[in-house]
């Protein structure tokens, strides 16, 4: 028995450092996981608290907003603030205009950028990369630099005071969307495209039957980005639209604020209704959005 104990002692002593290392590694991983979750919760609160405060403010009375220190939960919930905010301005008309501009911009962004990205990724032609780099360089051109030439162009075309300046540019492509789609299309095997050409398929057939179905996730990302940009666009409608019947919701909210300088409860009620469509759209396409961004960044 003593001999067996003596023989087991060195093995036990050798196993103890390994056990300690495993425990230390497990503890370190636990701390990393806890730290990451705490950081994510903190960052989530940074984005959630303003939305919660907007909802709470939309349900308060105007007198309660002047109380100091401010109360977090309204003492008297006023659901009629939404009705007052809707009736004070032509909210329905502005909402329909924004919805129309957003839908047309989504279609234009998806179609045009897919065509351009296909030409930069699935078709080999001399100088392709040089032209692509020139297109990407346009990302660094700020909008104020091009605002005056664009306004002069749209004025010569007699598009000012219409919705065309807000929708037609979406059909001309965007450097960022082209870059995003090209990164994904480069992952499609080129041999598959060549095989389709050998079988007699045209470029349009290859695009619609082979490339586009595989790029659904990236196209969803482009559609979501385009929807958010068009829905929240303020400078474009401010410059090109003067007719009140054609104003979008972003401009309408600013007019509402100028009319109700201190009644922020009505302003928050109108803003909340304007934010809801974007939130619902993101929740519906959340999986496609995450998949498209992650897949497009692998290369």
UniProtKB/TrEMBL annotation:
It comes from the Bacteria. It is found in: Cell membrane. Keywords: Cell membrane, Membrane, Transmembrane, Transmembrane helix, Transport. InterPro entries: MetI-like (IPR000515), MetI-like_sf (IPR035906). The keyword Transport applies. Residues 1-21 are annotated as: Disordered. GO terms for cellular component: plasma membrane. GO terms for biological process: transmembrane transport. Residues 1-12 have a biased composition (Polar residues). It is a multi-pass membrane protein. The keyword Cell membrane applies. The chain crosses the membrane at residues 38-59, 94-118, 130-151, 163-185, 206-231, 264-285. Pfam families: BPD_transp_1. Residues 95-285 form the ABC transmembrane type-1 domain. Belongs to the binding-protein-dependent transport system permease family. PANTHER family: ABC TRANSPORTER PERMEASE PROTEIN MG189-RELATED, ABC TRANSPORTER PERMEASE PROTEIN MG189-RELATED-RELATED. This is Sugar ABC transporter permease. It comes from Ktedonospora formicarum.
